[in-house]
Amino acid sequence: MQKIISFFSHPAIKKLDKEFTKIFENAPHLPKKATDILVKIIPYLVLISGLLLISGGLRSIFGFGSLHNALSFLVNVPSIYFYVIGFLQVITGIVSIAAYQPLKDRKIEGWFVLLGLNILELLMNIVSVIFLSDGIFGLLLGLLIGLYFLYEIKSSYAQSGTALLGKKAKAIVKKVKSTKK
């Protein structure tokens, strides 16, 4: 699981984060109480959604073969769509489950996994647009809303790491001052 988490700390994702930070820093902010509630429930929501994504992905890949054929015939959806979406759902579900503990511990790595999950969601939506000829407006609106909430809670994860560093730094300063006296 640690390898999955470390994948989302790649420099390309951090560069993408810097660009998104510039975009969302001037957006209206949610009240602190709302972000605190979101930060508390997100690990559990991510865990539940991960389990549901894996279940749905496996059903899409291995089950409902006759349903795939019926939908392919009725709506002109190629069967490969169900396999691609199923595979992406399983991957997203595994990543979601891996994100549970870092999110619960409020580690910044967990937040970066949430950013990666938004990117995976974007990929699934693009596949749906390609195969189902869905509108791109909903895709962009969903991405924008997801990223807005993600950047609203980022400070809760960043502060947890820096707060610990701050406490250690204060302890070191106190030690140095006491030795000088």
Task: Describe this entry's structure for a reader.
This protein is mostly helical. The protein has one domain. The chain has seven helices and no strands. The radius of gyration is 21 Å and the shape is globular. About 5% of the residues have low confidence.
Tell me the β content.
under 5%
Order of helices and strands: HHHHHHH
Tell me the Rg in angstroms.
21 Å
Structural class: mainly alpha
Proportion of residues in helical segments: over 70%
Distance between the termini: 48 Å
Mass-distribution shape:
globular
Number of domains: 1
Brief description of this entry?
This protein has 181 residues and is an all-alpha fold. It has one domain (2-180).
Identify the notable features of this structure and list them briefly:
181 residues; mainly alpha; 7 helices
Layout of secondary structure:
Elements lengths: L1 H6 L3 H14 L7 H31 L2 H11 L3 H26 L3 H25 L3 H45 L1
Helix pairs in contact: 3-5, 3-7, 5-6, 6-7
